[in-house]
Structures are given as structure tokens and as C-alpha cells.
Amino acid sequence: MSQQATTVPGTMRAAVLRDITKGLQVETIRTPRPRFGEVLIKVAACGLCHSDLHVIGGAISFPLPAVLGHEVTGTVVELGPGNEHSGLQVGQHVAGGFLMPCGQCEACAAGRDELCGPFFDLNRLKGCLYDGQTRLAAQDGEPIYMYSMGGLAEYAVVPATALAPVPGSMELVPAAILGCAAMTGFGAVRRGADLRYGETVAVVAVGGVGTNIVQIASVFGASQVIAIDVDDEKLEPMRAYGATAVINSATQDARAEVLRLTGGRGVDVSFEALGVPDTWKTALDVLADGGRMVPIGLGAGVQTAGVEINRTVRRSQRILGSYGARTRQDLPAVVDLAARGVINYRDVVSRRFSLEQAGQGYEALRHRQVQGRAVVDMSL
Ligand SMILES: NC(=O)c1ccc[n+]([C@@H]2O[C@H](COP(=O)([O-])OP(=O)(O)OC[C@H]3O[C@@H](n4cnc5c(N)ncnc54)[C@H](O)[C@@H]3O)[C@@H](O)[C@H]2O)c1
Ligand SMILES: [Zn+2]
Ligand SMILES: [Zn+2]
């Protein structure tokens, strides 16, 4: 039996991508309904992440038409069947993580949500949920695919495995960044790097995700956090998030500066948060002997980066890719860090757009005009 709040309208507004040459357009489509193990939320806000830009720009292919948007907060309005043990209630505030584990595959059984096979195969490649169907449709019934939960809409169906309760004391709109930008930062620090107290860190590219890596590395006890970017405006607020130094790699020699700051050693851990050869090079250049480089940035399609073979081998350096986090364990931990004020989620959100302005928001992101994160605020 599903449990539903009284009024869920039959149609809703959503930002739909039909054609990459035309961009996002707001349409009235059917309101989705949750199936087994799924929850319908009324979306409060959805963050604008660079990963969506790869799809909007056509660099990463995805079935169209589609609704993008994969870091959300909202209020539970309907529980599908099979939620008896999810602990979720109608009326509750929740954050939705982009990485939605099926909960049933071998990787999920091992707690490795980030490696969930059905998530890649059915959602990232086919835009569907775990019965192989999308929950979204145009008014004439034409299927519309979902990038994660399809958060750029008034309502979204989310598997309960990807939801964490958000306490009433938290501001729901900026908390949208928890489901990707902050969760990915947590995954990189906690899972990818397994950062230890006192280690030194560099973060290359401090956009939405990189800003969160800076603050999470700092609260995990890094003795130095060196923020590196090509944009002074992005670097300027980094000290407030715990950076101990900032470097503009467009105007300064990042390797020389990091060596100077670390007594000639380089950093124990370098995070890369853009996904281009240039940032990979910087992240490897600043790494100490025996260090760990943790790449988070996704390339625009199939992309490769140069790695100096002998240096990596002879200096026993490790490259540890990190995708999202273990949603079921880590998203509640990230919400808790934000709720207790250990990490700052409010100030990370520097710009708010209405659903109609979502396309403009992504254009601003493409042109590097977004400090931290921009969100679509559904109340605007
Ligand atoms: N691994 C994951 O789970 C995961 C999750 C979310 C996002 N991503 C990926 O992470 C990357 C970052 O996403 P975001 O939303 O933070 O992007 P963003 O657009 O907010 O930030 C990008 C930053 O890179 C900086 N930059 C640009 N060129 C640079 C250069 N040459 N050197 C240093 N800095 C440079 C920009 O000034 C900006 O601050 C994207 O590739 C995105 O697809 C990965
Ligand atoms: Zn994202
Ligand atoms: Zn799985």
C-alpha cells in the first residue's frame, strides 16, 4: 500500500532537455508516481552541477528527452509500497543523493553503493529506474528519461536508498548541495583518500565540488589545505572554508608554490575536481613521494590524461578515482555534518534561479560565473 499526502496534482512543471541545440525548456508533464521502494518528493531546490553541463553540452550522451538535476531537497509527499522499513514519513524533509543505489546487487550488498551496477546500466546509460522504466512522461505519454531522479521539476521520484532525512532546523534550499557537491566531497576525502589527521592536502579546481573538498579535508584534520584554481574570485573565499593557502595556477607556478609551502615535499593527498588533462597534471605535479592523487572531475566524454610513468612508479604514488560516495552510509553523515555546523552549506550557495531560469544558471556555470554552487529554488 502506498501512503500519500492529500494533494498531488496530475501534472507538473519540469525543465526538459529535448535537443542539445535548444537547451532546457520548461514544459508541463505528468507528475510521476513512486513504485516499490520509491518515494515521491515535492522538490524544494535542485543544485546545478557541472556533470549536468556535460550532458547539456552533448559531451556525455544521455537518452533524450530528459529531465536533469541530481542534487535535491524536498518534502516527502508519497511513499510507494515496500517502504515499511525505510523510516521515511510523509511530510518529512529529505535530501536526495545523485548516486541512487539499487540496494540489491553484489556491490550494494558489500556496502559499495558507488559501484552499483544497475545504477550505471539503467540510470546513467538508459535514464530509467530499476525496473528498466522511467517514471516521467509528457502529457501525451511520451517517455522522458531521468538523470538520477530528474530533480529539475516540481516533483521527483527517488529510490528510498538515495534519501536522507533533513532536520527541520536546516534550511532546505541551500541543503540541496548535500546530495552531490558535499556528498562527493565527503566520498573523496573519506573513501577515496581515507584522509588521516595531520596530512597535507591540495585541491585543484575549487568549484561546487572542490569547495566542499576543501572544507571536509579541513574538518577531517588536514594540517594544510592548499586551494588551487585559475580564477581569483573562486580562490578568494577559500580561507573561510579552511584553506591554509591559495594558488592561482594561471599566474603562479603551482608546483613550485606547493613545494615551497610544504618544505619541499609536496602534499600527501591531491584532489582533482575538474576532469581535464591540465588539472590532472597539476594534481600529480604537487604530489609528495608516496602520495595519493584522488581524481573526482569527470571528463567531457572519453578523455585521457598524461601520467609520468617512472615518477609514479619510483615514487610509489597512487591514483585513486572517487565517484560519489556510499550514499546509504555517507549521505546521512554529510547531512549531520551540515546540521551541526561542522561544514557550511548555506554560504556555498551563491546564486538562486527559478525553474524557468535553469538554462541561464547552467550558462553562468559554463562561463565560470558561479562561486560555490547555484541552485534552482522552486519557490522563486
Ligand atoms: N566524481 C563524482 O562523483 C562527481 C560528482 C560531481 C561532479 N563531478 C565532476 O566534478 C567536476 C567539477 O564539478 P563542479 O560542479 O564542482 O564544477 P564547477 O564548474 O563548479 O567548478 C569547476 C572549477 O574549475 C575551475 N577551473 C577551470 N579550469 C581550471 C584549471 N585549468 N585549473 C584549475 N581550476 C580550473 C573553475 O574556475 C571552477 O572553480 C566536473 O567534472 C563534474 O562533472 C564528479
Ligand atoms: Zn553532480
Ligand atoms: Zn546496486
Automatic annotation (TrEMBL):
One Gene Ontology term of the molecular function aspect: oxidoreductase activity
Pfam family of the protein (one): ADH_zinc_N
Family from the record: Belongs to the zinc-containing alcohol dehydrogenase family.
Family matches, as SUPFAM superfamilies: GroES-like, NAD(P)-binding Rossmann-fold domains
Organism lineage: Bacteria, Bacillati, Actinomycetota, Actinomycetes, Actinomycetales
Residues annotated as signal peptide: none
InterPro entries linked: ADH-like_C (IPR013149), ADH-like_N (IPR013154), ER (IPR020843), GroES-like_sf (IPR011032), NAD(P)-bd_dom_sf (IPR036291)
Listed cofactors: Zn(2+)
Keywords assigned by UniProt, alphabetized: Metal-binding, Oxidoreductase, Zinc
Every Enoyl reductase (ER) domain range: 19-376
Protein name listed in UniProt: Zinc-binding dehydrogenase
